[in-house]
Amino acid sequence: ETIKEAGLNRYLFEMTNIRDQCSWVHMHEPEKATEKAKDLVRMAVAKARLIEPLRQLSLSINHSALVIGGGISGMVSALTLAEQGFKVHLVERSSELGGIAGRIHYTLEGGNVQAYLAGLIEKVTNHDLIEVYTNAYIVDASGYVGNFTTELMRYRGPYVERIEHGVVIIATGGQEYRPDEYLYGRDPRVLTALELEEEIAKGKAPRRYRSRCKCLHLPSRLCLQQLSYP
User: Fold this and answer.
1) Domain with 111 in it
2) Backbone angles phi, psi at 135, to 5 degrees
3) Residues with Cβ < 8 Å from 139, sequence gap 6 or more?
4) In this structure, are 104 and 152 located in the same domain?
5) Domain for residue 79, yes or no?
6) Same domain, 92 and 182
7) Which residues fall within 8 angstroms of residue 141, CB to CB, at 6 or more apart?
8) Fewer CB atoms near the end CB (10 Å): N or C, the chain?
9) pLDDT tens digits for 173-203?
């Protein structure tokens, strides 16, 4: 703003942050800090020599959003935007919404995850401003902030669909770690926490477990005890 008030282009400016990048981080080495400060100033001057005046442009933006990932994070993001009046394109690679939450049945406090998930999916799929693309993945993306173009390939078809949008939310989530250790994949008695939870959710464990010694996942251990597997 000072440069602008002086009648110059406001972008003819280059800053050297001596305090944060030098004096504070090297407060116990003053001599080395001084030399580093000199180098920072030299670099800033060299960069300033190449600065050219810029001018601001006013561009229209696309007010729709693309949300990548149909798990809980993606659906909550899509619903939050849609409830504010924005059009949302929700893209999910698999055949249904839910993500990894579809394999989780209860919280640590005993909350019903599947009931919450079903309600969230119903809100998303029935919202007039949310368009859901399942069995789809992104093959190309282009554009700039406020105006993007993304191409989707649908598994059913296949065919390419183009989406115009102004912002992107990446909510692809994570995947369960499947180890090579502990005989996992070689001994059917070795399960991940999610696999164990899925079996517990069926109401009857197919085999006995020594939960006291080998079940380290607290909610699963409590459920196993309720199933009379101490």
Assistant:
1) 65-170
2) 55, 45
3) 151, 152, 153, 160
4) yes
5) yes
6) no
7) 148, 149, 150, 151
8) N
9) 888 888 888 888 888 888 888 888 888 777 7
- The verdict on 113 and 151 lying in the same domain is yes
Q: For residue 96, which of 113, 81, 118, 76 has the smallest C-alpha distance?
A: 118
Whole-number pLDDT of residue 177: 85
Give the span between the Cα atoms of 109 and 137, in whole angstroms: 35
Angle at 155 between CA 154 and CA 159, to 5 degrees: 45
- Domain of 73, CATH number, reads 3.50.50.60
Using a 10 angstrom Cβ sphere, with 0-12 exposed, 13-18 middle and 19 or more buried, the burial of residue 99 is buried
Number of domains making up the chain: 3
Distance CA 17, CA 1 (A): 18
- Tell me if 56 is assigned to some domain: no
Specify the residue for token string 């110059």: 8
The predicted pLDDT at position 212 comes to 46
**Residue 130, in any domain of the structure:** yes
Q: Does 216 have pLDDT greater than 60?
A: no
- Give a yes or no: residue 147 inside a domain: yes
Which string of b and e fits 134-160 if b means at least 16 CB within 10 Å?
Answer: bbbeeeeeeeeeeebebebeeeeeeee
Report field, pTM of the whole predicted structure over 0.90: no
Residue of 84, 121, 80 whose CA lies nearest to 99: 121
- From the list 77, 58, 56, 55, the residue with the least C-alpha distance to 66 is 77
Q: Decide if pLDDT at 114 tops 80.
A: yes
Q: Output the six-digit token pair for 41.
A: 């100033």
